[in-house]
């Protein structure tokens, strides 16, 4: 057993050793760029374009001006053929830039999906049948099937270990090279298709049908197959479309004013004006920003099942964390057995072992290991004949009902006390002293009782994962409250809470208490994140706005959550929150920038178009552009090139500092609002200097 204990625990949290394989891929790798350039052309199909009304309008403008290049007087008044052609070309490039941004964002996900698909290819399994085992392909495995996986073999389907114990290399999925231990019972029994058994063997019960495995879902997600607009995105989209409609009406009515003022406005000029005024910059980058946000989460080894969850992270107020397996490593092992009430260690050990005989949890098994280590024995035959009472989060006890009528129980001290008291048994006077000592050391005390007698306490030891305190401090700076929720006793909880540096804790909590806490916070209008690893955390993970399951946890937890952290690091929530905030900020910043830009472009184009008829307007011509034609073309060129210039920002996100939402908003309004107003004046002027040479 010693090899097992010295091995890395399943929740191998070690930020330093996290694999860089996935992150080292360059942001704009050559292949991805090439593919995106082609995909950008495919996206010209109206079927895709209608989803983005801003860019669809630009595409229509391109088609109309192209027509005017061929038949200049199609709509009566005619601008020169070359002019229509140039406008048409710029509009084409504008749409291509926007499509390229989206294709580039998608391309990075696709590349990742391809490498995952490699993992999935051609998996074989030894399926257990009534007569032995047969070799089957992973595609034929169904929920409930049992397979045996031996040393060196790859696990063919998602499932739970029901027998055996093995160290498993999960690097294909997590990028983490250190193998993790998986065993039946407890919170560390789930295994994932595509991972490899490096030593020993396990019997696995398959928990997902073909096409529904974790890997399948992951591939679908990174490929963006399931990507839908988030509520925030939809709201912004509506605003942008309304704005576009207003400008469309303004521009369509302009020719009538033109007629009144006795100026002819050419169709190409009107289209150029419209394209400059509508929010094309944000319209072109919106989808890329969303995709890139999801992608950034994936790069941190977190799989998010929805963009909505990533965004919700940006507004999280409270984070609820489970203690064991989340804040601590979770391999709670028997460290000592302390008798009470004058009993001997041997007597306590015997009953503790009888009560743990059939307990498959790491806690239960560690009791038997403790006996072996101390050369103590217990009555196995008697234990075999008893009826096992498995551990339940509700009762916080486990044990065995012996054939002679004796009931053996071990469990949380308060639960055992209640159980004994209900039978009229005494509470040993030295019990509280012993429990307190264990709890104050951060350990979990389990009381052992037979019928109405308490024999002593099992000291389960667990370790807080390193670096928790600093990380929780960071969350506090972001204005996020951390609450640890545990089924353990208040003293242990307090010790671990202090050691880890969480803001608050709730002890002796049952699954429904976690749920109630989340509902209460949500009732106050706060967004709540929950991290957990156990089946008993599943309801809370589902209820939370952001549910992050540890990859080391159970299938139930992973299915209920809307994110899975492949590194099983509860403080990863910091990165996800940062990415969520960054996503919201990036979208806000680029929207501000885009609209401020349009205002500035207005000042470039309007004076140019009307100056000849209304000389007073020359006062507005503060930019002193070369000519009306140059002004329109320069503004239009600026409008196009600003999209690719902002692609890196859209993909990487704006600079993020752990500040409160209000501070961030103010800072962004200043930088991107002001910047958005000034940039076009400089940009258009510079372009005009070049364009002017040719006119
Ligand atoms: N195998 C077991 N047999 C008996 N009692 C157990 C066993 N495992 C845990 N307990 C007791 O039940 C309590 C609740 O355990 P559980 O693992 O459900 O905690 P939890 O609610 O998930 O919280 P956390 O995981 O944060 O400690 C433990 O604190 C311990 O006292
Ligand atoms: K625009
Ligand atoms: Mg737990």
UniProtKB/TrEMBL annotation:
Polar residues: bias regions: 1-16
Q: Where is the P-type ATPase A domain?
A: 125-223
Taken from the UniProt entry, a GO cellular component term is: plasma membrane
> Where do the annotations place Mg(2+) binding?
533, 537
Note the superkingdom of the native organism: Bacteria
**UniProt-annotated stretches for the region Disordered:** 1-21
* Spans through the membrane: 52-70, 82-101, 234-258, 270-292, 602-623, 629-649, 670-694
Q: Which reaction does it catalyse?
A: K(+)(out) + ATP + H2O = K(+)(in) + ADP + phosphate + H(+)
Q: What is its EC number?
A: 7.2.2.6
NCBIfam families in the record = ATPase_P-type, kdpB
**Would you identify the family this protein belongs to, as annotated?**
Belongs to the cation transport ATPase (P-type) (TC 3.A.3) family. Type IA subfamily.
Function (record text): Part of the high-affinity ATP-driven potassium transport (or Kdp) system, which catalyzes the hydrolysis of ATP coupled with the electrogenic transport of potassium into the cytoplasm. This subunit is responsible for energy coupling to the transport system and for the release of the potassium ions to the cytoplasm.
Name of the featured protein = Potassium-transporting ATPase ATP-binding subunit
GN (gene name): kdpB
